[in-house]
Design brief:
It contains ten helices and 14 strands. By secondary structure, the chain is α/β, with parallel strands linked by helices.
């Protein structure tokens, strides 16, 4: 698959594009920015064939089959729709939109274009998460009754898009969405109740911390996030027979093995070690292969919109 990139965001130039360039089924051929000099510099550094001084330039390029959208959150829906209208498949950074209502028109745009759209929850491609899902499904953990997740980092830069409310900034859309997504993924059902609290930065205007409890039939999931704290992340999936704990669930390092621990009710534990891999490369190949083989997106757009619906409920509850 020949990929183009809309924008020169840091996540694109330092993580996703280099990872795509290691894919078996993908090649990055074009990058666009509102600033041609910036696009040209990124293309030169990354070894990309073509640079454009606009996002439209990438969409008009007949040699681009699919585009990756790493733009600020408020631009995800409009530029995904424009890419679909240009006949491109789309891998869009999370969150897929600012709300479920805003994101829902993507379904019609996708179906009208006959193209694939996927939200870039790269963790879905990592072996540690696939092992966690398998353990939750095959009975090894027993009945999953509780999921506890936390995710935090420090960012006080007012110029950073994650700290700008008008651009869709804030901790819930940035990292809290992972906690919502993984709870729904593990339990494979929707919550029936939500309780949440949130702290807003008085100067930046964004939610810099939050806690929520999602109540499911027969289970509960807790999530704690913060964007002005020390870096920290962990997920524990508690079952009636055993607990599956992931040490680095979200920012899995691409240069060393990852580990998870299964601890039984009797206290006996087993450490699982996963080979070195780049979850962004795995994601790129998963999506590219689905497009090449004419299959649906590995992570359905419908599920992304359901995830946004839960995020909306958390926001309404705070």
């Amino acid at each position: 698959m020949r990929w183009g990139v809309l924008g020169t965001a840091k996540i694109a130039t330092t993580k996703v594009v280099p990872a795509l360039q290691q894919c078996r089924h993908a090649r990055v051929v074009a990058i666009g920015s509102r600033d041609l000099a910036r696009a040209s510099q990124a293309a030169s550094i990354l070894g990309i064939d073509r640079a454009y001084g606009s996002y439209e330039g990438v969409l008009d390029d007949a040699g681009v089959d699919a585009v990756y959208v790493p733009l600020p959150n408020h631009l995800h829906v409009p530029w995904t729709i424009r890419a679909l209208e240009a006949g491109k498949h789309v891998l869009c950074e999370k969150p897929i939109g600012l709300s479920a209502v805003e994101a829902r028109p993507l379904l019609e745009a996708r179906d009208r274009a006959g193209r694939l759209v996927q939200e870039a929850f790269m963790i879905r491609s990592h072996p540690q998460w696939r092992a966690a899902i398998a353990a939750a499904r095959d009975g090894r953990l027993g009945d999953v009754v509780r999921i506890d997740g936390r995710f935090s980092y420090g960012n006080l830069d007012p110029a950073n898009i994650r700290n700008q409310p008008a651009l869709g900034g804030g901790g819930l859309l940035d990292i809290g969405c992972y906690l919502v997504h993984t709870a729904r993924w593990v339990l494979d059902r929707e919550p029936i109740g939500v309780r949440a609290s949130m702290t807003r930065d008085p100067k930046l205007g964004i939610d810099c911390a939050g806690d929520f409890v999602l109540r499911f039939a027969g289970a509960v999931a807790t999530g704690t996030y913060g964007t002005q704290r020390d870096p920290d992340q962990r997920v524990e999936i508690h079952g009636s027979r055993a607990t599956f704990a992931i040490e680095i669930p979200f920012n899995a390092p691409p240069d060393r093995p990852c580990r998870a621990t299964i601890t039984g009710a009797d206290g006996a534990s087993e450490t699982l070690t996963f080979d070195i891999c780049d979850q962004y490369t795995l994601q790129g190949d998963d999506v590219s292969r689905a497009i090449l083989e004419g299959r649906p997106a590995p992570y359905p757009l419908e599920d992304s919109i359901l995830n946004m619906g839960v995020i909306d409920e958390i926001l309404r509850g705070t």
